[in-house]
DNA sequence: TATTGTTATACTCTATAACTATA
DNA sequence: TATAGTTATAGAGTATAACAATA
């Protein structure tokens, strides 16, 4: 345990003892892996995440998704249009300015496939963490995430 | 401890119980924070990292840095040129095709300032992890990183 | 033949600005 | 007045292809 954060004088920390560096490299590598896996369902990570949100909260509106995932509304437009063009989601007017988003039957089917990929990805990732650390990494990241200042609170 | 990975049937996992999702969000937020901090020395994260590598291994060549940091050699060119234009690094021919990279005096001074920022960022980040998890997160990430298939082995 | 370095370019992602219309 | 949605565009970051020169 834990003198990894101490640098010997003269010999500076190797990069891979820095939490910030590790977070970036591990995240990038993991997302690259996930992207490859999601090619099988022809979706990007963000598409999969949006489908998960729509499933979890039917009639969710675009701007709320954007707030949760930190996506500008301007960038939500082509994202949702592509999902709609693929027949995976449907928009139903809530009032004059908002559209509630729902999965189509095809979208629900696609999400089933996708969830299997996501779950396997998740399992594989967790198994690469040695047992003695495994139960700590998610709570640790959640704690960092919970203390990040950001616009929206949930998820 | 640890039933965060279990989803209740019907109620799917919230996103922020997924390791992959947390890695991405925490990494993005942390890098955004670091970018802001590095504005004080007019450097990006990647610039700071490259300066660290040059300091650690004087006469390192561009292609080796690219291999370590997963930066295509084509993209190393403008990166190094900018650092050279700022007077932070110097290139000295090793042979007819390679240039050894070194910090200039100004580069060494800049890196001192930069390292202070990096170290404070690191400390702040670590302190956001509850004590009971703190000694686990770096080893956990190192383990994931160590098992990522990639071109280069070190750092 | 593999490596180093370079130029030019394309693609993706994200950010910004201006705008319309509704709550 | 704030929110929802849209369009168009700019910028960064990254990837690809073609190339020259050296080990």
Tell me what you see in this structure.
The structure is a homodimer of 155-residue chains. Chain A is mostly helical. In chain A, 59% of the residues lie in helices and 6% in strands. In chain A, strands 1-2 form a two-stranded antiparallel ribbon. In chain A, β1 (89-93) and β2 form a beta hairpin. Chains A and B meet through α1, α2, α5 and α6 of A and α1, α2, α5 and α6 of B. Chain B binds a DNA duplex (23 and 23 nucleotides) through α4.
What's the topology here?
2 copies of one chain form a homodimer.
Chain A: H1 19-38, H2 45-56, H3 62-69, H4 73-85, E1 89-93, E2 99-103, H5 105-127, H6 131-146
Antiparallel strand pairs in A: 1-2
Helix pairs in contact in A: 1-5, 2-5, 3-4
Chain B binds a DNA duplex (23 and 23 nucleotides) through residues 46, 61-63, 71-77, 95-99.
